[in-house]
Amino acid sequence: MTDIESAWSALGGDPALLPRVSTVVREGALQGRLPVRELARACVGACALAAAELGARRAGLSQVPGVRVDDGAVATAFVSERHLLVDGRAPVTFAPLSRFWRTADGWVRTHANYPHHRARLLGALGVPENVAAVAAAFAERSAPEVEEAVYAAGGLAVALRTPEEWAAHPQGVAVAGRPLIERERLDCAHARVLAPIGTTPPPLLPAAGLRVLDLTRVIAGPVATRTLALLGADVLRVDAPRLPELRDQHTDTGFGKRSATLDLVTDRRAFEELLEAADVVVTGYRPGALDRFGLSAQALAERRPGMIVAQLSAWGAYGPWGGRRGFDSLVQVATGIAAVEGSVEEPGALPAQALDHGTGYLMAAAVLRALTEQSHEGGSRVVRLALARTARWLTDGGGSGSATSGVQGAPYDGPRAWLAETDSGLGRLRYALSPASFEGGPVDWARPPGPWGADAPRWN
To answer: What is the C-alpha separation between 62 and 49, in angstroms, rounded?
Structure first.
């Protein structure tokens, strides 16, 4: 079931803490055929409870602060990229070639927001950058043929499947056999000694003093690290100079963080210095893509015992698709979500990129819970999450049976109550506030986002 209880259980949390969570239910928030509102509420609630738990331990509180999850705040944050305004300008979330296309036998969806993915898609099809030409090329081929040809060229296209077809697919079988959150202790490193934190003046910052090296892109990973930044962590995002992030996407997920660029080959010494002082490393590249730089979980734990490593992937680090790239929109198509949310005439989509956002909050929660466990038991730790596994949770979920209390609020009538504005080096920003809140905790980030790659690659 897609409720807070099952999310908290997947995190290894103490069920006795669940009564500390209450919800404000708002009809009309994140409406879909699948229980996406319940999934979003569960991910955020589990994250906020993990933050409150860690905060209570570090502050020496006798009781974990209460958590209140408001459907309105959750619904607003799960489409934060749509609410962003930069000097009044709204962002473009999908490029013209990122969409559904008819094939000879069905549908495929492509992702071509990044220039290198767009070039590979066009190269696989052998057509110019023209919507009509692309449509004609797809119409002549079967969906499975397009999927394999574009993947072989390094591009991104996924055939539409029903939930039943995905359940029978080898990757679907592999995903179904894994837990929602994979948690592993890597060694017997000493228990982490977390510096005490105060409760006055507020807010209570559970992640204060922790250094988080953010090696993620797009939405899910950056949402996780944006949440850790809200909670007081020093988050430094590092990208390769040759792979700039989409500007508005970076702005939306850059609150509370600093952003630097490093070439992991030519700037190796600077990168090693960052690793030597990092407490948490969060990665969001294809499984194994960073191993050659010594960034596997085991290698990181060996060089810095007590490290927490969080790894995100689209399809999971296993099965025949374990090495493939992927995005929320594509995972929705492969796993049957687009078929369920669509109609006889065409596929559909969830009301938000909920796999990205939900997995992001679960990843932040997994890091926070690993820190709490480590403070008791020690051990370097790795947590692994996959968009496809979150999708399986959604398609299997009923959204009922929650062990948390709830009250009926007014229907969701828009995001106004959960938006804020601030000045920044990028201009005047309108943005969604974080929904992961608890009693005495932070309500906004300590700093706005800055330009991509503008900060020095060093810790504060």
So the answer is: 15
Catalytic residue among 70, 248, 356, 444: 356
**Neighbour tally for 186: CB within 10 Å:** 19
The predicted model scores a pTM of 0.95
The beta strand positions in 301-432, using DSSP E, are 308-313, 381-386, 405-408, 419-424, 427-432
Q: Please, what is the end-to-end C-alpha distance for the chain in angstroms?
A: 42
Q: How many Å apart are CA 52 and CA 437, to the nearest integer?
A: 9
72, 165, 259, 390 from 179: Cα distances, Å: 29, 21, 32, 10
Strands (E), 7-106: 21-25, 67-70, 85-86, 100-102
**Strand 258-261's sheet: what is its strand order?**
182-185, 381-386, 308-313, 280-283, 211-215, 234-239, 258-261
Using the 8-state DSSP alphabet, how is residue 11 labeled? T
CB 320 within 8 A of CB 169: no
What is the rounded distance in angstroms from the CA atom of residue 252 to the CA atom of residue 258?
Answer: 13
How far is 281 from 283, CA to CA, in rounded Å?
7
Q: Which residue has the tokens 């296209």?
A: 157
Phi, psi angles (nearest 5°) of residue 261: -120, 140
CB-side exposure of 79: number of CA atoms within 13 Å? 18
The answer to whether 372 and 206 have CB atoms below 8 angstroms apart is: no
356 is known as an active-site residue = yes
In degrees and rounded to multiples of 5, residue 430 shows phi and psi of -105, 135
pLDDT in tens for each of the 460 residues of the chain?
559 999 999 999 999 999 999 999 999 999 999 999 999 999 999 999 999 999 999 999 999 999 999 999 999 999 999 999 999 999 877 888 999 999 999 999 999 888 888 999 999 899 999 999 999 999 999 999 999 999 999 999 999 999 999 999 999 999 999 999 999 999 988 878 888 888 778 899 999 999 999 999 999 999 999 999 999 999 999 999 988 888 999 999 999 999 999 998 899 899 999 999 999 999 998 888 888 888 888 999 898 899 999 999 999 999 999 989 899 999 999 999 999 999 989 999 999 999 999 999 999 999 999 999 999 999 999 999 999 999 999 999 844 445 566 788 889 999 999 999 999 999 999 999 999 999 999 999 999 999 999 999 999 9
Max CA separation in the chain (angstroms): 66
- CA atoms of 17 and 205, how far apart (whole Å): 19
Helix and strand totals (H; E) in the chain: 17, 16
What's at 5, amino acid-wise? E
